[in-house]
Amino acid sequence: MRRHGPRKPTPIRISTTTWRLILFGLAALLVLILWAVPVVPAVALAGFAVALVLSFPVHLFAQYVPRGLAILLSFLILLAVLLLLAYILLPLIVSQAGALVAALPNLALQLHLLRMGS
Q1: Which ranges does the record mark as transmembrane (predicted)?
Q2: Is the pTM value of this prediction over 0.70?
C-alpha cells in the first residue's frame, strides 16, 4: 500500500565535468556581456559608490526624520556638494585647458626641434 504525503524530489545527478562546462559557459557569457557593453561595470561601480557615500548620512538622518526624507536630504546634500565642487573647479580646469591650448604650438615646435637635433 502506498503512503499519501509529500514526495521527495528525484535527484538529478550532474557530473563534475558538466558542472565545469556550465560554469565555464556562464563565465564566458559574463565576459561577452561585459565586452559588448563596457559601461556596465562603470555604472555598477558608480552605483556602489553612491550607495556607500549615502549610507552613513541616511542612517544618521533616519534617527530624526522618516527614512524617505532622510534619503532625499542625503541625496540633496550630496548633489549640493558636487555642484559646489564643480563651481569651484570648473573655472580652474577651463583656464588650465586654455593655457595648454595656447602653449601647444610652442611645445610642438620645441618637440620638432628636439627630434631634428637627434
Answers
A1: 21-37, 43-62, 69-90
A2: no
